[in-house]
Each structure stands twice: as C-alpha cells, then as structure tokens.
Amino acid sequence: LxxxxxxxxxxxxxxxxxxxxxxxxxxxxxGNVRSLPLTITGMDSPALLWLFRDWDTQVVESIAPNDTPPxxxxxxxxxxxxxxxxxxxxxxxxxxxxxxxxxxxxxxRWFVYHQMTVQHDQIILWVRSDLVLDQPGQNTNP
Length: 142
What we know:
Elements: E1 10-12, H1 15-30, E2 38-41, H2 46-51, E3 57-60, E4 71-75, E5 86-97, H3 104-113, E6 118-128
C-alpha cells in the first residue's frame, strides 16, 4: 500500500466490493438491487451505515436464534448461533498503516517506494443459504 504520513489513520478498504456482492445477491433473488433487508450486528460503523444508506438496514446488538435475516454483516471475530444455515465471506473493511510496528525493512521500503504494511479489520457478509445458487445438495442438472 502506498502510504504517506498525512493520510488519515483508518480508511475503508473493501467497501465497493461488499456493496457489489450484496447488490448481486439482492438482484439475483429479488430482481432488483437494494431490495433484500440487511441486518448489521456487533458493529458501530457510520461508514457501513452510509454505504448501505439506500437499503432497508437494521442495526441490532445480537441476533435471536430463531431470527433469519437474508443478509447479515458481522465483525470477523463474532460467532453465529442461528438455526438457519448461512454462507459467509470475509472482507477487509478498514485498513490502517502500521507505523508503530514497522521494522527497519518496512521503513526502508517506505523510504524507497512509499509502501508500508497495513493492518485490516475484517467483516463477514453472511447470506442465508436458501438465497445462494450453489446450495449443497442442490441439483443443478436440467
């Protein structure tokens, strides 16, 4: 990552990709982007709310075991204990340059190429299994 000292500390990393995948899942299942409800749990992220500002978005502290939201976003370290099966994909959500933990080799690479190691905060976009085309056990032959 090209890094400069005056850049902000933390910045969104994979916002476009998360939105693209969510739009594709919604379009595939409802014929329109932004039409599936989205639930965010375990996160306080104004950037995430802004990214999904045109969606029917609900922010909750935790998901009840019998609740089955179609799309769900959680931090990477959270555990889902839902009765319905979900498929999840991890995304880099925020990234920050590792100035404090930089080694001499990192500083040399920054001095020559302006590249520095970054740390990523991960999120997981969960999709209810019945909304995914390649469900296990689903017969795809005509």
